[in-house]
Amino acid sequence: MDLIESKGIRLSDPRMRETFRRIDAEANGPESDLSLEAFSRICSPSFHFIRGVLLSQLTIPGMSIFKLRMGRIFEKIRKILQQQTNQSTGSIDPFSNYNVMMRKRKSTHTMSLALCTVDGQRLSFGDRETPHPLNACATIFNYTLAHVQNGPEVMSHYFGSEAKPEDKGELTFNSGGKVWNPFTKAGSFVTSCLLFREMAVENRLDALHEFYDSLIGHEPLCCDNLSYNFKRSYAHEEICAAYNLSATQRLPRGNAELIAESLDFHFQSSSSAMTSDACAVAAATLANNGTCPLTAQNVLPHSSVRATLELLRISQPNLHAHAGERLQGVAGGWSENGSIMLVIPGVIGISCFTHCQSITKINQVVQCLFEELSANFNFGIYRSLKDRGNLLFQR
Hints:
With 395 residues, the chain is an alpha+beta fold. It is 47% helix and 9% strand.
């Protein structure tokens, strides 16, 4: 068991559940000595999985070195977040009273970093037990689900596929009269309106949480009531964007008449909370073409996952430019609310939660992650053709 844990596989992994049930069912319990026959019988439900773990046939074969290097990256991120800025108020969106109120209530020193590979190897640092509102991460999950439910033609009818210029506000639209992309505040609200369209608004949150539950492999999931109540009272920019979309007839049919209820569902969605551990599993599900690495359940089709990741790269071109060929295909989402999620397709999902509430610092953290991951690991296909002996994780 110690060897399995040293490979990054937790003993709580669902793939080990039946094996542990059989161990507990032994006459003398888990402390008894097992014969070879009993051991084979107990391990049979997870035989291929355990064999792969023991033979290091996993995404990250050298977990001990990987853990050491990721620990150093975590400390660098912590230093970035602890640095005092000379313009602390200017780093917060001046139009977002929600961010100001949340910063007053939440500890700015809380931070967590978690990783999950497409094989289910997991690693975490910091406060991994405290749930954090998803905020921008929820939009990523919601858009992927909306793409499944509505199809690419409907999605392209409502959304553009370009980054919102820095000099444009949330009330502006692209040259085609659409919201710039699904990951702006206006785009996030339209995405929420496209979910479970045939269902009564009051029933949508339960259905959405069932989807989240499958995405994270049944890890803990809850609602952050503080975030939800603050959004209802202080997220004026999002509320304004929603009514502007309604007034300009850019919402799906039926939502304009239920604008208050639709906003309520939108705020409940973004205030859904999970630990960074759970969010990393969700990111790994996207990295694994929509299949949850812990349960092997196919949650999302590959086409919808691919469409979402492509739009993510388009919506944050400046920061994704730091990846280049160093992190092939990396995509992610983040916001001033302190939620960060990165997806490296076919390899790993990463989440970082903090109550920093500064988009400047969040951008610095994302840039640090890109640069440090590239400097220490070889996730890209093309880099594996080069002689980079100092890099861990050659693929």
